[in-house]
Amino acid sequence: MGYEIIAVVGARPNYMKVAPVWREFEQIDHASMRLVHTGQHYDTNMSKVFFDDLKLPKPEVFLGVGSGSHSEQTSRVMLEFEKVLNKKRPDLVIVVGDVNSTMAATLVAAKMEVPVAHVEAGLRSFDRSMPEEINRMVTDILADLLFTTEPSARENLIREGIDEKKIHFVGNVMIDSLNFYRPMADSSRILDMLAIEPGRYGLVTLHRPSNVDDTETLKAVLGALVELGGACPLIFPAHPRTRKMIENNKIQVPAKKLRILDPIGYLDFAKLMMHSRLVLTDSGGIQEETTVLGIPCLTIRDNTERPITIEVGTNRLVGASAAHIVSEGHNALKEPLGQGKTPELWDGRAAKRIVRVIDEYFNERTQS
Ligand code: UD1
């Protein structure tokens, strides 16, 4: 029962989700995996640094689609990925997360009748103004194997009419990576390089279009962060989307309160997160990582597709209102650390479960 897989990555949050799955498949002889990078993210510090940190092999194919409108980006991935599948058809395509590359690759594979496995299926923010929500819904309706991270995902999929047999609760590959790379992150010198001390700074990430694309919203959020930064200095590795908005609008922030850096790699970021007093973010994955690390997380959004991080974890939704960010930030700084619990199956073994399910899937197909 030999089978061939293509795993697709495109953007920064994809790499650490694919890495554990890649490692598991490396250990079995009857399956081979090729890595395709769409090129949605292309800067060294949005892509190559992660391949180095995670020790992922160089992708076999690089589609080089780059930036563009949603339709441009999606269609370019489709055109290029179709050529890859035409050249050598795999038995399965694995996609992860909810970026444009995830949905585009899924559409191509489904139309060519190549089975698709979606890692991190079923998450829903119920907010279709979020591009990722559309990507999640389209990917899930087309996928043949749906790997979920938390109970809400199964409920969402069943409600949307997905066949229960396709859904597999396996845990969280992002946490597989966090556990696996933690000793390496420990050795990072980033705190010394930034001359900061453990527990005496907060960490910020911000890149959602809803927070950064509108100048007034961005100014209000940054203003709130500067105010909070007066109580606890904040370190802010800025996404290129956000950096461009800050520069184009000539927004000035005092670096002593809100220190803007270029994007940083996986290990350095993990180290910064592990020792921060507080995290403020609009990322999806960071809500999960802080939950496991027991670091208070304030999510600068009105909703989350990851409700488990609020139910059992350290996460709290604060929206984009400046007053709310400041008051919740001050509250969080007063609280003791480490009050969250680790959600079920976030135990570092999600990729092992995924491989087991995929193996069974091909076993059954061989027999029938
Ligand atoms: C994408 C994902 C988002 C994910 C985020 C993580 C979609 C719809 N969005 O958002 O879900 O949370 O990645 O980072 O897929 N840019 C660069 N260099 C790069 C990449 C991007 O300068 O290497 C700039 C470009 O100006 C580009 C902009 O960032 O236009 C946005 O990039 P894009 O990939 O379209 O979306 P993200 O905001 O990164």
Structure description:
- With about 375 residues, this protein is an alpha/beta fold.
- About 45% of the residues lie in helices and about 15% in strands.
- The protein is built from 16 helices and 13 strands.
- The strands form two sheets. Strands 3-2-1-4-5-6-7 form a seven-stranded parallel β-sheet, sandwiched between helices. It has a six-stranded parallel β-sheet with strand order 10-9-8-11-12-13, with helices on both faces.
- Helix 14 links the parallel strand 12 and strand 13.
- It is globular and about 65 Å long.
- The two termini are about 15 Å apart.
- It binds uridine-diphosphate-N-acetylglucosamine.
List the helices and strands and how they pair.
Blueprint: E1 3-9, H1 12-26, E2 31-37, H2 48-54, E3 61-62, H3 70-87, E4 92-96, H4 100-111, E5 116-119, H5 131-142, E6 145-148, H6 151-159, E7 167-169, H7 173-186, H8 190-194, E8 202-204, H9 209-212, H10 215-229, E9 234-237, H11 240-248, E10 258-261, H12 266-274, E11 278-281, H13 285-293, E12 297-299, H14 308-311, E13 315-317, H15 322-334, H16 350-367
Helix pairs in contact: 1-7, 1-16, 3-4, 4-5, 7-12, 10-15
